[in-house]
Amino acid sequence: MNELAITVIGRDRPGIVADVAEVLARLGANLTDSTMTRLRGHFAMTLICVGPAAAEVEAALAPLAADGQLLATVRAVTPDGAETTGGEPYVMAVHGADRMGIVAAMTRVLADVGGNLTDLSTRLAGTLYVVVAEVDLPPGAADDLSDRLHRAAADLGVEANLRPADPDLL
After folding, report:
1. Is residue 57 within 8 Å of residue 73, measured between CB atoms?
2. Are 37 and 44 in contact (CB under 8 A)?
3. Calpha distance 72→50 (Å, rounded)
4. Residue 166 CB-density burial (10 A; 0-12 exposed, 13-18 middle, 19+ buried)
5. Contact criterion met (CB below 8 Å) for 27 and 60
6. CB 25 within 8 A of CB 50
7. Residue of 21, 50, 72, 119 with fewest CB within 10 Å of its CB?
8. What is the pLDDT along the chain (170 residues), one digit of tens a residue?
9. Do residues 20 and 64 lie in contact, with contact meaning Cβ atoms separated by under 8 Å?
10. What angle do CA 152, 156, 157 make, to 5 degrees?
């Protein structure tokens, strides 16, 4: 079996997820991980599946993109095996007036302490910019990261906080 990474992007419309999922099911591809969102009227989905060869999936998805409204890409990936992070799960939240560089600065602080993003969402609502990230931290790094986040946030004129993630919700 092949492990594939598939992306589908384009103008949002009802039924995109159903269309893609039906194509994959007909091919015998098993969806293992996926994420989908709408971004200012645009659809974006990334998924991992196990099944047929990349070329076969690409050909089967081609009709969905034939009108030029969607772009679908398929890429074979190497299975990583069992996921063992050993990290501590936290949620990092940042909010404040929109300005350039918020995501860059805050994710750099995270990377500098060895933290890893596992999920990131941003949203602009009027002039308010919100970042919510699920992160894995090296054991014992939370206090140092929290201090660094607060300093970086102050430099940007935004607010930041870090809290342990509820493992039942992740």
Report:
1. no
2. yes
3. 17
4. exposed
5. yes
6. no
7. 119
8. 899 999 999 999 999 999 999 999 999 999 999 999 999 999 999 999 999 999 999 999 999 999 999 999 999 998 776 555 678 999 999 999 999 999 999 999 999 999 999 999 999 999 999 999 999 999 999 999 999 999 999 999 999 999 999 866 55
9. yes
10. 115
Look up residue 72 and give its two tokens: 């679908």
Instruction: Give the distance from CA 89 to its chain's centroid.
Output: 16
In Å, how far from its chain's centre is CA 114? 19
Neighbour order of strands in the sheet with 42-51: 30-39, 42-51, 2-11, 70-77
- CB burial of 12-40 (b: ≥16 within 10 Å; e: otherwise) equals beeebeebbbebbeebebeeeeeeeeeee
